Amino acid sequence: MKNTTAFVRSYEFKHIASDFTAYFGNNEDGAIELVASPSNHPEHIFESAYYYGQGKAKPIVDISVMVGCVAKCNFCELGRNPYVRKLTSDEIFEQVVLILLRASQFSNIEQMHKVSLGKSGEPLLNPNTVCGLRKIGAFDFSFKVSTVFPRGNKAKNVFNEIMEFAVRYEQPVQLQVSLISTSEDYRTQATGIGASFAEIRQGLEQWIDSNPQPKGRKPNLSLILTKDTPADPRELRKVISPELANVRLRPYIETSNGVNVGLQLISEQRFADLVRQFKDCGYATSVAGIPTPIERKFRLSSNSTLERYRKQTQI
pTM here? Predict the structure, then answer.
């Protein structure tokens, strides 16, 4: 889209509204987080965000696909909150417009951005996800679809639609599966809805076959590492080979929900040891997910701003 700034500043919002925006950091390491709601249901709140700074290859727009979440991940603030409903494609699209409008006073929004579906909700369980991607595609941004990869036919159908969109879309679409742990039992307990490792492997194979490089991107497997998270690359390699996915290691950032279930922060030494072990097993291992100083200082974990907003307004 040419002249993004003019578009977002003249856009008339019909589907979402926001009365709360928080700004953190500066141009070197900055974050903007807002709490929004559907225009016809102001009590249904969700979070969107914008991350930018010198350490990022491109600014990241992080959006929600649901009010609440069907997954009950123990490390996420939403893990103890009820699922409310799926967002429409217009509500998904207008989040991007709104967060770009907020960011336009701090960042060059004419440059390439990545839109991440990584805030509230599970993309593969919202049939409106793909239509939302198509609408956002008018900006010509790249995408990252973050999913716990739920089991069941509904999730498979949406996955296939996203895969077809990725094939036709001109910019890269990154698939990121929140594997959480290399233990299947631990992952199942953590999410409540996750597919088996065998099903994930099959999905990764389909994705790579449909989206070959160089335009296609090898999928990521994201592990959220606490003090006690089982993370053995030798066990993972038995089911999902390094040829099918990169590994993205991220230390758990403390959340109220995580504290309630007894999660503890991983030590720097264990984290460094795990990075080395995954690399030694042949996995392309990214530590780009390590929280920035601003994220750590203000505990900008998944939906933490939304949780603070709930407490302030008692919604």
Answer: 0.91
